[in-house]
Amino acid sequence: MEELVRRAALVGALLKARKETVAVCESSAGGLITAALLAVPGASAWVLGGMVIYTRQAWDALAGFQESQLRGARSSTEINAQVRADLIRERFRSSWGLGETGAAGPAGNRYGDPAGHVCLAVSGPGQGATTLRTGQAERLANMHAFTLAALDYFKQKIESIQ
C-alpha cells in the first residue's frame, strides 16, 4: 500500500497546485484506487469521492441511470472505462473523472478477457483511455497493478495539460 500512497501523493500534489478535483469510478480494482488517493493526508481538498460499480445490479442502482449511457459497451473495454470516467465526473461535478474496468482474476471474465486485463480512462481537461495486461492471474497482485497503472496514467494526463 505504501507505493500506492506514494504515487497517489504525486497526483494529489498536482491537483492541489491546480486547484482541481477528482472522482473515481472503478470495478476490478475494488475501491483500491480511491483508497490510495484518500490515504494521502489532505486528500479532502482534491478527492470528491468514488464508487465501485462491480456488477450489472450496481449500474441499475444508480439514480437516473439509463442503459443508453453505456453506449453498448460491455465491461472491460476502453469505451466502458470512458463512460465510467465521464459519469463520475458529471455526477460529482469534479474537474477530473477516473474510470477503471477489467478482470482481476484468478480467471478471466465472461467476455473472454484474461485475468490481468484492465481498461483505464480519464475524463476532464485531458481525456483518453488505455488498456493494460499484466500477464498475471493472482487477484491481489492485479488489483495492485491496476491501481498503480491508473494513478500513473492519470498523472500523465494531468501533466500533459499546461
Describe this structure in words.
The protein has 162 residues and is α/β, with parallel strands linked by helices. The chain has a single domain (2-159), classed as Maf protein, CATH 3.90.950. It is built from five helices and five strands, in the order H-E-H-E-H-H-E-E-E-H. The chain has a five-stranded mixed β-sheet with strand order 2-1-3-4-5. Helix 1 (2-18) packs across helix 2 and helix 1 (2-18) runs parallel beside helix 5. It is globular. The chain starts with a helix and ends with a helix. The relative contact order is 0.19. The mean pLDDT is 94.
Give the count of helical stretches.
5
Distance between the termini: 30 Å
Whole-number total of structural domains: 1
CATH fold node name: Maf protein
Please name the fourth-level CATH homologous superfamily.
Answer: CinA-like
Instruction: Compute the average pLDDT.
Output: 94
Shape: globular
Structural class computed from helices and strand pairing: alpha/beta
Order of helices and strands: HEHEHHEEEH
DSSP helix fraction: 40-55%
The biggest sheet amounts to: 5 strands, mixed
Instruction: Tell me the β content.
Output: 15-25%
What's the β-strand tally? 5
Q: Which radius of gyration do the C-alpha atoms yield?
A: 15 Å
CATH architecture: Alpha-Beta Complex
Specify the CATH class.
Alpha Beta
Lateral arrangement of strands in the main beta sheet: 2-1-3-4-5
Pick out the low-confidence regions. Answer: none
